[in-house]
Amino acid sequence: QSALTQPRSVSGSPGQSVTISCTGTSSDVGGYNYVSWYQQHPGKAPKLMIYDVSKRPSGVPDRFSGSKSGNTASLTISGLQAEDEADYYCCSYAGSYTFGVFGGGTKLTVL
Amino acid sequence: EVQLVQSGAEVKKPGESLKISCKGSGYSFTSYWIGWVRQMPGKGLEWMGIIYPGDSDTRYSPSFQGQVTISADKSISTAYLQWSSLKASDTAMYYCAKMVNYYFDYWGQGTLVTVSS
Q1: Is A97 helix (H, G, I), strand (E, B) or coil?
Q2: CA separation for the pair B51, B42 (Å, rounded)
């Protein structure tokens, strides 16, 4: 099972919005509404930011939102803040054989 | 408070065996899948496999099938990841995480495994 495809890096200035894409296939992203997104700061464990494509866990700011169209999921961060600078990973359920697959990760730089 | 506490860093030689652990607390350990995720140095997250401690049902990513063994002891709320013969390429940070409906909501702090001769 190949990793989901994410851009290696994205950047934005404080206050701006950025969108990170996550492209898979009809066997994973396109086939199920089970896409999740994780934020990872250097040296730290990942943190859940979005689950089930667009749901936010308690405590995650509403500046973070998720969506999906076809085989591509997206994470949008609006009102960028310095503390949003981190690596972001998407993950999708991929059926009962493979079960789960991550994207390659995207480094977000806040300029 | 949900917590997953992993065992400490390990330094091993190629060919040696290893078992690392992940102890859950603050929730019903037997009612949720626990997953293991690998992160090689400077690289991304890789989904390794999951176990349901209630009945030890285990699923492996095809990439890791036969390379590692995932197990659990529900009597002490602990999941394990083990290798029978380590390789240098197993050097990585390994995370355990609690899974709910195909997403990981709580993560352990990670266990760094270094394999070097």
Answers
A1: helix
A2: 27
Say if residues A14 and A81 touch (Cβ distance below 8 Å).
yes
Out of A1, A96, A105, whose CB is closest to B62? A1
pLDDT tens digit sequence for B80-103: 999 999 999 999 999 999 999 899
- A83 three-state secondary structure: helix
- E-assigned strands of chain B? 3-6, 10-12, 18-25, 33-39, 45-52, 57-60, 69-73, 78-83, 92-100, 103-107, 111-115
A66 touches chain B (CB under 8 A): no
Residues B34, B44 contacting (CB under 8 angstroms):
no
- Cβ neighbors of A90 (< 8 A, separation 6 or more) are A4, A6, A20, A22, A29, A35, A36, A37, A38, A73, A75, A102, A103
Residue written as tokens 């993950």? A91
Chain B residues close to A45, C-beta within 8 Å: 95, 107-110
- In this predicted structure, the answer to whether residue B65 has a pLDDT above a threshold of 70 is yes
